[in-house]
């Protein structure tokens, strides 16, 4: 079955994850009874997560013809002879109006019907709630025939938990069966041991008479020792203190100081990043107080210097070396770059970031912790008096995630640190939560598949 990306704006993206089957139509009947049968309407509707009756009814409303969808047979019919290209264009309009998020364009949305009989689309990626134009004819049909309620995330988690418990119980039962099977084998081997020794002695004949077979008591002792060894579970203390103690015992006092454990390096890196983050937060007010000769702070100087080079049209490749030559910490440089890129922007931050992603790609490529620096720069920028930037933080995160500038692990780590940190009361975490939840749910669903 041929597949295509959902949404005409994503048709050129070879790695787009949301796909649907290409439409297949068939003309049936003659004269006044001629009809167009959309053969794979059920598969298309399943890919769009919308009832097939909605799309069929939409075709009828737009073409001014009668349409019917049979729930039992899955047949979608529209009166009249219509080209596949024309119906595909109408399906594209349906996707824009009733499937894609009006904020980020993601097709993973859910139809909500309010108490006032208004239709809304709630995005699972960015959390944006889109208001559907109620002047469309299909809205009346949707209100009268609302979609079936999906199982909530709590139900899904309960099912997963029950499945894991069932698997654990099955594994425990298998282990008990294995132990029961091993016990009779051991007893049989201990009983047959002396007999086998005697039989080999008989078969050996006169040539083996000079050799002495081990007495029966020794054979029994060996078998008992083997059984005891099977019951013993050997364990090695793998803690950090035990590893250090073993190194000190094996090496001399001179060489032991030269050995560095990988865990120490990770701890030092984590402490260094935490110190850099704390220093950037603590140093920011002190830096602002230390005014230079021209009356502006060093952080403002960084922003102005980056802004001037961006206005001159510096390339992304040259930007990387330019950022490395700037004074200040890596976090301060990233803060200055992000603020300079969004200079003068009051709304539509995600669109601006998508257009200027090449500069951020050059900055992120500088080191392992560059993605965390970028996330903290977003946090710093949203901390300023700009409510629009805070509201659009989920859209910005999704734009950077789709552009492969941010990885899921770093986003989740940044979010968890922020929620548990001193800035946990900021509204940025509330607005970023729907996107983080979507990332984690998408990962769990992919693991189940």
UniProtKB/TrEMBL annotation:
Any GO BP annotation: formation of cytoplasmic translation initiation complex
Region of interest (Disordered), ranges: 146-232, 266-298
Cellular component, GO annotation: cytosol
Basic and acidic residues bias spans: 147-178, 205-221, 266-280
Domain of life: Eukaryota
GO molecular-function terms, A-Z: eukaryotic initiation factor eIF2 binding; GDP-dissociation inhibitor activity; GTP binding; translation initiation factor activity
InterPro entries cross-referenced by the UniProt entry: ARM-type_fold, IF2/IF5, Transl_init_fac_IF2/IF5_dom, Transl_init_fac_IF2/IF5_N, Transl_init_fac_IF2/IF5_Zn-bd, W2_domain
Residues of the W2 domain: 292-449
Annotated function: Catalyzes the hydrolysis of GTP bound to the 40S ribosomal initiation complex (40S.mRNA.Met-tRNA[F].eIF-2.GTP) with the subsequent joining of a 60S ribosomal subunit resulting in the release of eIF-2 and the guanine nucleotide. The subsequent joining of a 60S ribosomal subunit results in the formation of a functional 80S initiation complex (80S.mRNA.Met-tRNA[F]).
Family as reported in the entry's similarity comment: Belongs to the eIF-2-beta/eIF-5 family.
Protein name: Eukaryotic translation initiation factor 5-like
Organism, as annotated: Sesamum indicum (Oriental sesame)
Gene: LOC105176136
């Amino acid at each position: 079955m041929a597949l295509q990306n959902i949404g005409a704006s994503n048709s050129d993206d070879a790695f787009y994850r949301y796909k649907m089957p290409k439409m297949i139509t068939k003309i049936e009947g003659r004269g006044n009874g001629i009809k167009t049968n959309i053969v794979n309407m059920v598969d298309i509707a399943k890919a769009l997560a919308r009832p097939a009756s909605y799309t069929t009814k939409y075709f009828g409303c737009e073409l001014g013809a009668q349409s019917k969808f049979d729930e039992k047979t899955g047949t979608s019919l529209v009166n009249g002879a219509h080209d596949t290209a024309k119906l595909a264009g109408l399906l594209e309009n349906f996707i824009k109006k009733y499937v894609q998020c009006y904020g980020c364009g993601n097709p993973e949305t859910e139809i909500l019907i309010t108490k006032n009989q208004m239709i809304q689309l709630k995005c699972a990626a960015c959390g944006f709630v889109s208001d559907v134009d109620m002047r469309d004819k299909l809205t009346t049909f949707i209100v009268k025939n609302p979609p079936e309620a999906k199982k909530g995330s709590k139900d899904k988690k309960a099912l997963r938990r029950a499945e894991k418990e069932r698997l654990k119980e099955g594994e425990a039962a298998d282990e008990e069966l294995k132990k029961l099977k091993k016990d009779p084998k051991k007893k049989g081997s201990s009983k047959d041991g002396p007999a086998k020794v005697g039989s080999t002695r008989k078969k050996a004949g006169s040539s083996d008479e000079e050799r002495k077979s081990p007495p029966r008591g020794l054979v029994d002792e060996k078998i008992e020792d083997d059984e005891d060894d099977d019951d013993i579970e050997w364990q090695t203390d793998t803690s950090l203190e035990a590893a250090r103690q073993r190194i000190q015992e094996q090496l001399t006092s001179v060489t032991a100081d030269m050995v560095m454990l990988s865990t120490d390096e990770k701890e030092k890196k984590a402490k260094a990043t935490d110190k850099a983050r704390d220093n950037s937060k603590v140093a920011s007010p002190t830096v602002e107080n230390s005014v230079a000769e021209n009356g502006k702070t060093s952080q403002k100087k960084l922003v102005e210097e980056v802004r001037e080079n961006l206005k001159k049209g510096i390339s992304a490749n040259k930007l990387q070396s330019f950022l490395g030559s700037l004074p200040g910490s890596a976090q301060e440089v990233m803060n200055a770059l992000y603020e300079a890129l969004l200079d003068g922007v009051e709304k539509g931050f995600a669109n601006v970031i998508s257009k200027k992603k090449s500069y951020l790609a050059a900055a992120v490529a500088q080191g392992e912790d560059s993605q965390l620096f970028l996330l903290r720069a977003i946090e710093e920028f949203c901390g300023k008096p700009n409510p629009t930037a805070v509201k659009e933080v989920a859209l910005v995160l999704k734009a950077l995630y789709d552009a492969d500038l941010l990885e899921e692990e770093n986003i989740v780590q940044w979010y968890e640190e922020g929620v548990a940190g001193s800035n946990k009361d900021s509204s940025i975490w509330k607005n970023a939560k729907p996107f983080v939840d979507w990332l984690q749910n998408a990962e769990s669903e992919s693991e189940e598949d």
